[in-house]
């Protein structure tokens, strides 16, 4: 009797492997249903990149070639909340992750001049506040 080898990701045909990675990592496939506020977020299944070095290289390549990311920085802390509430899908808002992120097609920095003038628009100077986040453009 011949023992059958277990079917693993590495033993699947390359095209099927690629389709699996695309379904886990492409924005078109990982967009979540709207929440109670009608905001739709993305859930990239990046855990697949930790399977082994070969899978990591292929999956990472697909993640960054199949999606467009924009890094946004602004000097008004409420901007991130405003963007999220208007259905802009934020992929990450972790300061360390945003600072190290290199796979973006654009970096956008928005300055709010009134944020530097104490007392104007009912707020104190918040020039030291800088919010940065990564969004996916599907």
Key descriptive features of the protein:
138 residues, elongated
Instruction: Report strand %.
Output: 15-25%
What is the terminal-to-terminal distance?
51 Å
Low-pLDDT windows of residues: 119-127
Helix content: 25-40%
Structure characterization notes:
Helices cover 31% and strands 16% of the residues. It has 138 residues and is an alpha+beta fold. It is elongated.
SSE blueprint:
Elements: H1 14-25, H2 27-30, H3 53-65, E1 68-74, H4 78-85, E2 90-92, H5 95-100, E3 106-110, E4 131-137
Parallel strand pairs: 1-3
Antiparallel strand pairs: 1-4, 2-4
Q: In a nutshell, what does this entry contain?
A:
The protein is of the alpha+beta class.
